[in-house]
């Protein structure tokens, strides 16, 4: 038997489950499909490898989705300052939330806890069906109508099919939407490490000619370490035993960091920039990594996804309240117009950062040194960088930058 519903979301990761949680109270019939059930939270557990730096704009959306309070009752690490530097020993440039009268720049949260909180925000909403664990076996998309068949044998039709199924999106392929993509010539080595000493309300990032290095404090005496490097070097580092890898961290990461005491977990990720040519067709829409992936050096990937979910949910809620069809193309294109350019600009900014900082070409080295020094002494410029990190609109004091964002 085929079940007809309003909205079928493929992918219950951070973005798909947050979209469902934001829309659940309006009463539309929603199905959320997720292949891998997240493990329940255990306060005694060590931190997961996959974490994200959530911006205040993302947190505001998670509050609207009624998920933020339960994230806070689990665990997060708020940070108020970001330190950025080039040389291992120099003082670097400090960006402080206090300079724009904000209380924090963001929170580091384990991805699984964001997902769990969004799923728990769906409890008690009889209009939402969670299909987990299950996965798509086939999607038939013809003339704006989708039939979704699941491995379990269940079958659905939906007025709107949302692809929140990540970079390898099956929904994107079913809609025949093309993707521009390119692989960066570096991988990310990610590790959860034990730390002692040092400050904890701060994130650190250092730019080296091989790629950036960062350390993000986690709750307790832990931190998430990310080291971008040539794929062959990342493979070599990962092949070292634990002591060898810890020695490499201690030798190559800045001396000012808290002392690294042990290794909890390690892994690596290939880095791809990708952008779907369209975000919508009649009855189909893409959000989050299904629509775009970005260099993670400034931790913006999931933050862009939450902004997609925020804009899409506003468009859908308005249409729903006015009794309009939620799969109508003009409506979905309104979402695409608002988000595609913003995502594109952020992708290009990250490329400029990655290229501008990850090389040793003398003029670029001088330019970035001058830029960091200028940011250190120039109040307005520094405040704009902080506002950008907060996901706030830029102020009117730097009209050139405001125009770029508009
Ligand atoms: C090293 C690294 C560090 C990063 N750090 C940050 C950071 O600090 N801040 C930040 O903002 N971003 C960061 N990102 C990016 C961020 O992780 C992604 O942007 C984010 O996870 C995307 O979320 P999503 O829900 O769109 O997709 P995903 O996390 O990929 O979730 C997709 C979900 O869909 C499910 N799914 C897929 N196909 C199917 C199917 N056929 N049937 C059923 N279910 C399916 C999957 O199981 C998964 O749960 C980082 C990325 C990397 C690689």
Task: Sum up the structure in keywords.
8-stranded mixed β-sheet; D-Amino Acid Oxidase, Chain A, domain 2; 2 domains; 406 residues; 19 strands; FAD/NAD(P)-binding domain; 36% helix; globular; alpha+beta; binds flavin-adenine dinucleotide
Spatial separation of the terminal alpha carbons: 48 Å
Question: Architecture of the largest domain, according to CATH?
Answer: 3-Layer(bba) Sandwich
Q: How many structural domains? A: 2
Number of strands: 19
Describe the protein in words:
The chain has 2 domains: 2-70 and 111-181 and 273-350, FAD/NAD(P)-binding domain, CATH 3.50.50.60; 79-109 and 185-271, D-Amino Acid Oxidase, Chain A, domain 2 (2-Layer Sandwich). The chain has helices at residues 14-23, 56-64, 68-74, 111-121, 170-175, 231-239, 242-252, 301-321, 329-357, 362-377, 379-390, 399-405; strands at residues 2-10, 30-33, 51-54, 77-79, 81-85, 93-96, 106-110, 128-131, 136-142, 145-150, 155-163, 179-196, 202-208, 211-218, 222-229, 259-276, 280-281, 284-286, 292-293. α1 packs parallel to α4 (111-121) and α3 crosses α4. The chain starts with a strand and ends with a helix. The protein is α+β, with helices and mostly antiparallel strands and 406 residues long. It has 12 helices and 19 strands. The strands form 3 sheets. Strands 1, 2, 8, 9, 10, 11, 17 and 18 form an 8-stranded mixed β-sheet that branches. Strands 6-5-13-14-15-12-16-19 form an 8-stranded mixed β-sheet, with helices on both faces. The protein has a 3-stranded antiparallel β-sheet with strand order 3-7-4. It binds flavin-adenine dinucleotide. Flavin-adenine dinucleotide binds at residues 10-16, 33-36, 52-53, 111, 135-136, 164-166, 170, 188, 190, 269, 288-289, 296, 299-303, 305.
